[in-house]
């Protein structure tokens, strides 16, 4: 029996519009969608293993960062509001049946936190935010993920900021994620995500204004989280992180002065594929 090392694991970041795969320096991006079924995802993983092997790598394990609630121990997926058709799916077993490799599943934002830990050997505790299509979060305390009793700790995107607000995919109204995320931005501006990024790069004043109030709204939620956790570090990741950083940092400054004085708000060190990087660490030391 051999122990699996992170550099031998093929890590995946599964999203609502794309899937990222990575092992060592090799990586690929695969177009996907909300209709990505369990069978489809297994097929994608099998294909990536073949392509990674052809590129000279030899995957010894599979790590999956998944957008949903994961079963205890990382054996499968309990549910997802991002992808359709996922309810109590024994994904690790399905992958092992098709590939013969050990597999472990973790929430995608938690995976990003693991990727951040790998890039920050001196960090002890931090709050991680991901800002892209929506807003996600994870908590690291004393270099360990804090999942909470139900496995949902850190879901800052579901902090309610308006009881009469828009309906979230989780079934509640007024969650900050669908209010401030990229999907809401694109809908307000009547543009797609590609054009949104172009207009951010060109410093379009209309886009800048639309981002500013959203970033500040998210920053106010972060200020509350700082008063609860006092982690010393807030990490912002995701495709919209650079644009959101100033506004989040500004309003996070409304936390207790002593906490603010001892807190850094920074961009992720693990971009652009931190969740895939973190997924490669899911089987650290496990026997294959």
TrEMBL record:
It holds the Pfam family ROK. PANTHER family: BIFUNCTIONAL UDP-N-ACETYLGLUCOSAMINE 2-EPIMERASE_N-ACETYLMANNOSAMINE KINASE, ROK (REPRESSOR, ORF, KINASE) FAMILY. Belongs to the ROK (NagC/XylR) family. This is ROK family protein. It comes from Sphingomonas baiyangensis. It comes from the Bacteria. The lineage of its organism: Bacteria, Pseudomonadati, Pseudomonadota, Alphaproteobacteria, Sphingomonadales.
């Amino acid at each position: 029996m051999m122990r699996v090392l992170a550099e031998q694991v093929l890590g995946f970041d599964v999203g609502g519009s794309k899937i990222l795969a990575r092992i060592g320096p090799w990586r690929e991006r695969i177009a996907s969608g909300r209709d990505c079924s369990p069978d489809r995802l297994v097929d994608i993983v099998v294909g990536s293993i073949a392509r990674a092997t052809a590129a000279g790598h030899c995957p010894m394990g599979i790590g999956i960062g998944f957008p949903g609630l994961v079963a205890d121990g990382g054996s499968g997926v309990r549910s997802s509001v991002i992808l359709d058709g996922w309810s109590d799916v024994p994904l690790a077993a399905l992958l092992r049946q098709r590939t013969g490799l050990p597999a472990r599943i973790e929430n995608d934002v938690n995976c990003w936190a693991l990727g951040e830990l790998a890039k920050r050997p001196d960090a002890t505790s931090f709050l991680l935010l991901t800002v892209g299509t929506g807003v996600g979060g994870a908590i690291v305390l004393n270099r360990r993920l804090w999942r909470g009793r139900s496995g949902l700790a850190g879901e800052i995107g579901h902090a309610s900021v308006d009881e009469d607000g828009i309906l979230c995919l989780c079934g509640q109204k007024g969650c900050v994620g669908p209010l401030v995320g990229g999907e809401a931005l694109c809908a307000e501006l009547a543009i797609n995500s590609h054009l949104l990024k172009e207009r951010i790069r060109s410093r379009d004043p209309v886009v800048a204004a639309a981002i500013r109030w959203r970033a500040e709204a998210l920053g106010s939620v972060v200020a509350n989280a700082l008063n609860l956790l006092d982690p010393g570090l807030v990490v912002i990741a995701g495709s919209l992180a650079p644009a959101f950083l100033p506004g989040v940092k500004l309003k996070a400054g409304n936390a207790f002065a002593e906490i603010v004085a001892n807190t850094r708000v920074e961009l992720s060190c693990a971009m652009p594929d931190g969740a895939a990087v973190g997924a490669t660490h899911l089987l650290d030391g496990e026997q294959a």
